[in-house]
Amino acid sequence: MSSVANLQSQLDELKANYDESLDTIWMILAGLLVFFMHAGFSLLESGCVRFKNTQNILAKNLLVVTVGFLCWYVVGWTLAYGGVEKPHKFSGGTQFVMDGFFDDKTLFRNWFFQGAFCATGGTIVSGAIAERTKLKGFGIYVVIMTSFIYPVVAYWGWSGLGLLSYTDDAGESVSAFGPAYKDFAGSGIVHLVGGIGGIVGAICVGPRKGRWEGKEEFGADNIPFCVLGTFCLWFGWYGFNPGSTLSMKTKDDAYIAGLVAVNTTLAPCMAGLVVFFLRAHVCQPKLLDVGGFCNGILAGLVSITAGCAFVKPWEAVIIGLLGGLIYQASSMTIQKLKIDDVVDAFSVHGACGMWGVLAVGLFGNPDEGMGGNGLFYGGDQLRTQVMGVVVIVAWTAILSVMIFAPLRKVGWLRLGDIFQDEGCDIMEHSPVGAVRMSQILDQQAQDKAKAAEAAPAEGEKPMDI
Predict the structure, then answer these.
(1) Spatial contact of 79 and 93, defined as CB atoms under 8 Å apart
(2) Dmax over Cα atoms in the chain, in whole Å?
(3) Residues of the chain with pLDDT under 70
(4) Which of 92, 294, 295, 406 is least enclosed, having the fewest CB within 10 Å?
């Protein structure tokens, strides 16, 4: 009997090791795909800005990733997942700079996967305020976004201890507003946070010089980059959404990941086609708009991200269709309000992020055993989803205003007119930046000298003509 018991123990240990290896491989692979999305953001945003600002927007994308991961290492993870002995509903407070990770080595893979999500929020903001924002002002915002704003929201919804999802005394998963908040891969927790930060930043920094005067073309400068960036983002989304199963050791894990991948394909297909059709046949100037097609696809991806594991494929198609309509309506509204959002970040990530969260409250049949609790099937999920949107928007908007407004006041946010006219690449990026800046300053000095010579001497009256 002892030999049988020893054999069973060895088999159990082998299975545990095998399960752990599978989960780690799955999460690292998914995390790599999410990390690759930053290549997609870089291509998309460099295609949307004018050529003279390409290096500048790429510098901001690199800054988000490098600064964002370091902030996540020092304090972001702590606030998002570092649960204390007697947890409260606001944030965590342990595991600073990975304290205790070697006692539970599974935390390393989770840190990497979740850190890739954290950096995404800052990248969304960089596109919204491109071409007229100082690097130091944006850098300060990124530090606070990845250290505090996003981690607190992640704690609320994903830690299992926060305001939007925690376990009550009866062992039920609930929220402060009813049923536990549902957001499988982050329509609200990631994309809505980034979208709100983006529109607040765009309002605070103001529009690009001449944006609404019609004297200069401000459209996307490189459509091939926009399309390639969209495909890179779509590819990375297969890590973003299926990877949010957080495990891959059972057939149920595999079935959920397969469903999520299907829904992550269908919704953007429908949303992209809806926007492409609307811009070709309904919205002026009624021409084929490839850039709009790209943003429609991204709108569909954001819309399905919250509910991708809870709905059937036909429901994903409907969510994508409505997501395309919401994106187009939001994009037109933002332009009508003369808010200069360079990459339509709010319309894609903010408006469709809200819709994705609310869609979980409408779709998803509780009887299917998929975790759905939609109003259309008699569920009571919608009230929690609505309140989830309210608290995420309020938190992100208030803190973003508190950061951006003072930065604008002290002159650390908006670039001057000369920088916008000449382009950031020439003015402050090597190798031509220093030379070109010297030439511009010399020219300014010459202009001032000429103006002084032409001005009438003190006490001398100008000649009447």
Answers:
(1) yes
(2) 118
(3) 1, 215, 432-444, 454-465
(4) 406
- Angle (CA) 85-91-95 rounded to 5° is 60
Q: What is the dihedral of CA 63, 69, 71, 77, to 10 degrees?
A: 150
Q: Can you give the pLDDT at residue 463?
A: 41
Is residue 45 within 8 A of residue 130, CB to CB? The reply is yes
C-alpha to C-alpha distance for 218 and 238, rounded to whole angstroms: 32
pLDDT recorded at residue 283: 95
Cα–Cα distance measured from residue 48 to residue 127, given in angstroms and rounded to the nearest whole number: 9
Q: Of all residues in the chain, what percent carry a pLDDT higher than 90? A: 82
- CA distance linking residue 150 with residue 152, whole number of Å: 6
| CA distances to 236, 290, 447, 449 from 165, in Å | 27, 40, 63, 67
Question: DSSP letter string over 55-74?
Answer: HHHHHHHHHHHHHHHHHIII
* Tokens at 191, concatenated: 């994309």
Contact, 260 vs 316, CB < 8 A? Answer: no
Q: Which residues fall within 8 angstroms of residue 1, CB to CB, at 6 or more apart?
A: none
Local structure of residue 436 (DSSP, 8 states) = H
Q: How many of the other CB atoms lie within 10 Å of CB of 172?
A: 10
pLDDT score at 433: 53
Token pair of 232, please? 């890179």
pLDDT value at residue 447: 73
Cα–Cα distance measured from residue 239 to residue 241, given in angstroms and rounded to the nearest whole number: 6
Mean confidence (pLDDT) of the chain = 92
DSSP 86-154: S--SS-----GGGTTGGGSTHHHHHHHHHHHHHHHHHHHHHHHTTTSB-HHHHHHHHHHIIIIIHHHHH
Report angle CA 168, 393, 265 to the nearest 5 degrees. 85
pLDDT tens column, 118-151: 998 889 999 999 999 999 999 999 999 999 999 9
Phi and psi torsions of 160, nearest 5°: 80, 5
Domain ranges within the chain, ordered by starting residue = 37-418
Location of structure tokens 């090791």: 17
